[in-house]
Amino acid sequence: MKLLVTNDDGIHSVFLHELVFALLAAGHTVAVVAPKTEQSWIGAAKSRNRPVHAVAADHGLGCATWVVDGTPSDCVNIALDHLLPSALKPDGVVSGINIGLNASLGFIIASGTIGGAWEGALHGLPAAALSQDLTAEIYERLKAAGDIPDAELHTILKVSARHAAHLVPTFLAATPPRAFIVHNLNFPLPCSAHTEVRRTVPALVVVPGLFSPAADDGTHRLIFRLGDDLSTAEPLTDRAALATGFISHTVLDYKKLGQ
Q1: What is the rounded distance in angstroms from the CA atom of residue 32 to the CA atom of residue 76?
Q2: Distance in angstroms (rounded) separating the CA atoms of residues 101 and 135
Q3: Of 15, 160, 193, 204, which one has the greatest count of Cβ atoms within 10 A?
């Protein structure tokens, strides 16, 4: 397949790079259009009130690559309408691999990773969003290392990327154009070559208290929380699948919002 790849962690993310390497190794044609800087938790936001720059750049990915100083949605919009030559017009849009999970309604709606994939769906293309679950301790260690994973995490990431390179084209090929569908995949920690996929629904999680009380200067700061899961045992949720070591595959069918 011909695939447009973006993310919300930025062009320098090793998680993005490993996804691209796996897709290329599987024989797919890839073009990357990714944000210049991290754009996490920005949802489907677009840069309305300022000009957005897009430049071609070689980041050693082995494919056509552009960097956009905007959001994931900006990246996909500009890529599809202005950057990609006809030879690279994609069969689908892939966003990720995100650093951390994007499971449950609260995280799905806020996710820049899913926002990038959703922008592909808005252009009539099949789309997928990919995320790698991490513990809080591993996440903090990763951030302290400048988003460079240690050997153990890097090995897990490569495995998740190989799963993605196998699963995503299958899901996209089975999705008709203009279906307004995003396939949301979350990879567990750890993820092995034998990890199985489970079809899931978004967990019903409430996430109160995301900001700190006001500091002396009147500012509030984000406090990451996984929230409180109010889901029932059935059907299987994305959070429950991850907790039991499965790859979660949720089909986000936006047509059903009007039903």
Answers
A1: 10
A2: 10
A3: 160
Q: What is the pLDDT of residues 84-110, one digit of tens each?
A: 999 999 999 999 999 999 999 989 999
| Full DSSP string of 6-37 | E-SS-TT-HHHHHHHHHHHHTT-EEEEEEESS
User: Do 95 and 6 contact (CB within 8 A), yes or no?
Assistant: yes
User: Can you tell me the distance from the alpha carbon of 92 to that of 33, in angstroms, rounded to the nearest whole number?
Assistant: 13
Sole residue written with tokens 């429950």: 240
The rounded distance, in Å, linking the Cα atoms of 111 and 237 is: 18
Cα angle value 181/237/180 (rounded, 5°): 5
Digit-coded pLDDT (tens) for 199-246: 999 999 998 889 999 999 999 999 988 899 999 999 999 999 999 999
DSSP 77-142: HHIIIIIS-GGG--SEEEEEEEEB---SHHHHHH-HHHHHHHHHHHTT--EEEEEE---HHHHHHH
**CATH numbers and ranges of domains, the chain:** 2-202+232-258 (3.40.1210.10)
CA–CA dist 34, 74 (Å, integer): 9
Please count the CA atoms within 13 angstroms of the CA of 46 that sit on its side-chain side.
9
